[in-house]
Amino acid sequence: MPTAVPAPVPAADDRCPCLSGSVFAECCGPLLAGARDAPTAVQLMRSRYTAFAVGAAEYLRSTWHPDTRPGALELESELRWYRLEIVDTERGGPFDRDGIVEFRARYRADGERGVLHERSRFTREGRRWLYVDGDA
Fold first, then answer.
1. pLDDT in tens for each of the 136 residues of the chain?
2. Which of 30, 32, 45, 83 is most buried by a 10 A CB count?
3. Are 58 and 84 in contact (CB under 8 A)?
4. How many CA atoms lie within 13 A of 82 on its CB side?
5. Residue 48 host element (H or E)
């Protein structure tokens, strides 16, 4: 069976892979392009999911807190991410210093389906949200 590859980066008017209901150009697109920072922990979580879905490893590294960021990041090419569900949030708003986002991310790998269920921790440094770590 051939190995799956990341989905192509969506066109500006395509539905955003994070399933927010917005088009890519109004949701995760500007974040992945570095045009602006995520205003909330949830939006950072959505953009990081989209980065996994389209294979944007550099964006993932740049939004990972330096204290917990791995030295190298290689995305698993056999995973195909196809659905994100935000389960719960705590804090993480524009005026908070930290936040938690619980989510389920569904994927396919080698013909099998799976779910990553994680409770992720985020911190805000200055005006920028960063992913710290999570409990799967």
1. 334 456 688 999 999 999 999 999 999 999 999 999 999 999 999 999 999 999 999 999 999 999 999 999 989 888 999 999 999 999 999 999 999 999 999 999 999 999 999 999 999 999 999 999 999 9
2. 45
3. no
4. 11
5. helix 41-54
Nearest Cα residue to 55 out of 35, 78, 34: 78
Question: Which phi and psi (to 5°) does residue 22 adopt?
Answer: -95, 165
- Taking the CA atoms of residue 47, residue 51, residue 57 and residue 60 in that order, the dihedral angle to the nearest 10 degrees is 20
Identify the sign of the CA torsion 126, 131, 61, 84. negative
Instruction: Provide the CATH topology of domain 24-135.
Output: Nuclear Transport Factor 2; Chain: A, (3.10.450)
Q: Which residue has the tokens 């990341």?
A: 6
